[in-house]
Design brief:
Blueprint: E1 28-37, H1 44-55, H2 65-89, H3 100-116, E2 122-130, H4 135-144, E3 147-154, H5 161-175, E4 183-186, H6 194-210, E5 217-223, H7 227-231, H8 236-251, E6 258-263, H9 276-285, E7 290-294, H10 303-319, E8 324-328, H11 335-348
Parallel strand pairs: 1-2, 1-3, 3-4, 5-6, 5-7, 7-8
Helix pairs in contact: 1-2, 3-11, 4-5, 6-8, 6-11, 9-10
Bound molecules: the ligand C=CC1=C(C)c2cc3[nH]c(cc4nc(cc5[nH]c(cc1n2)c(C)c5CCC(=O)O)C(CCC(=O)O)=C4C)c(C)c3C=C and fe (ii) ion (FE2) (2 copies).
One fe (ii) ion binds next to loops.
Length: 353
């Protein structure tokens, strides 16, 4: 006689599960802040591992692999780890033995958790696209803690495929391996969000007031990207230009004393322009004596701001005859910075909370 088995799907609580069926906690919400990453150390091998992972990402370098592989492995990874390791040493957080990007992102996660104020229900964590803590490990940790809904928040106000999209790709790589996936949302870019623009303006007003000079020119500088990515449809440039325009307007700063530029060119192809370093040198040559730089695209200070802007570009300006130079810090874990992130998170959690 044929025995009809009860349908497990319709009667999940009538226990036909094997004894070792995994127990899963559920019912909580995870908020995962995603940032770029930073090397685990400034030594040659840590730098090399980090740069290899970063520069092997096809979202970052879009060249065909057969063309890129020898350039990366035979040239870049022999020279750059040593040179950049020295740059990282100048900004390293020796107390924690980590890059400032990691220290600041951790603090943002802690302060965001406090601001959301519902630790029973909401778990906040942070992860990196490259190096540690890995996105995979932090998604799994959220699941362990009972989060079956996860909001991913790439900490890039301006969307770019080499940053935002690759952060999401990395999270979905982990989900691809799961039988029971959590529900996942990816927060959209917030380049024109009033909470973000207001936070930038508040922070800049405060830092400008602390200076012993009034800048003749302010440069809003953003991390660069190959011009070809813009031409292929990446909205990053348009997002940066809009952030810059809204920020200047919020400050009421004169249009003819505000410039928008792009930094950190890598390789020989044209990147987004005007270039920050060339602009700084030009202004000094034209007789500008007092200059301030702000980097609204960086949610945390890092190599690109502390070493490249406050270090290298300060020298270009001073060596060119400039007298007063200021780099105005990123939002970091300031109260206004956390308020901006909280506003984005609360909006994107609607329906879940
Ligand atoms: C070579 C291609 C790169 C593209 C395209 C790119 C885009 C891009 N990057 C950021 C933000 C950051 N980048 C940082 C460091 C960094 N960026 C690149 C290359 C590209 N970035 C490299 C190789 C490095 C490492 C340092 C170096 O070797 O020069 C950082 C700082 C990390 C830290 O630890 O401090 C940030 C942040 C954005 C927003 C962006 C957008 C298009
Ligand atoms: Fe970069
Ligand atoms: Fe750089």
């Amino acid at each position: 006689m044929n025995e009809t088995k009860p349908t497990a799907v319709l009667q999940p609580d009538i226990d036909h599960r094997p004894a070792d069926h995994p127990k899963a906690r559920s019912g909580r919400i995870g908020v995962l802040l995603l940032n770029l990453g930073t090397p685990d150390g400034t030594d040659y091998w840590s730098m090399r591992r980090y740069l290899k992972e970063f520069l092997s990402d096809e979202r970052v370098i879009e060249l065909p692999r057969w063309k890129w592989w020898p350039i990366l492995n035979l040239i870049i990874l022999t020279v750059r780890p040593g040179r950049k390791g020295k740059d990282y040493q100048t900004i390293w957080n020796n107390e924690r033995d980590e890059g400032p990007l990691k220290t600041i992102t951790r603090s943002q996660a802690e302060k965001l958790a406090a601001a959301l104020g519902d630790p029973e229900r909401i778990e906040v964590d942070f992860a990196m696209r490259y190096a540690n803590p890995t996105t995979d490990s932090r998604i799994r940790a959220l699941l362990e803690k009972g989060c079956d809904r996860i909001l991913l928040l790439p900490l890039y106000p301006q969307y770019a495929a080499p940053t935002t999209a690759t952060a999401a790709d990395q999270a979905f790589r982990t989900l691809m391996k799961m039988r029971w996936q959590p529900a996942v949302r990816v927060a959209p870019s917030y380049h024109d969000d009033p909470a973000y623009i207001e936070a930038l303006a508040t922070s800049m007003r405060r830092d400008l007031a602390k200076l012993d000079f009034t800048p003749e020119v302010i440069i809003a500088t953003f991390h660069g990207m190959p011009q070809a990515y813009l031409e292929a449809g990446d909205p990053y440039y348009c997002h940066c230009q809009k952030t810059s325009r809204l920020l200047r307007a919020a400050l009421g700063w004169p249009e003819d004393k505000w410039l928008t530029t792009y930094q950190s060119r890598f390789g020989n192809d044209p990147w987004l322009q005007p270039y920050t370093d060339e602009t700084v040198k030009r202004l000094a040559a034209e007789g500008v004596k007092r200059l301030a730089l702000v980097a609204p695209g960086f949610s945390a200070d890092c190599l690109e701001t502390l070493e490249e802007l406050d270090g290298e570009n300060r020298h270009y300006f001073e060596d060119g005859g400039g007298e007063k130079f200021a780099y105005l810090p990123a939002l970091n874990d300031s109260d206004e910075g956390i308020r901006a992130i909280e506003a984005v998170v609360r909006r994107e959690l609607s329906g879940w909370l």
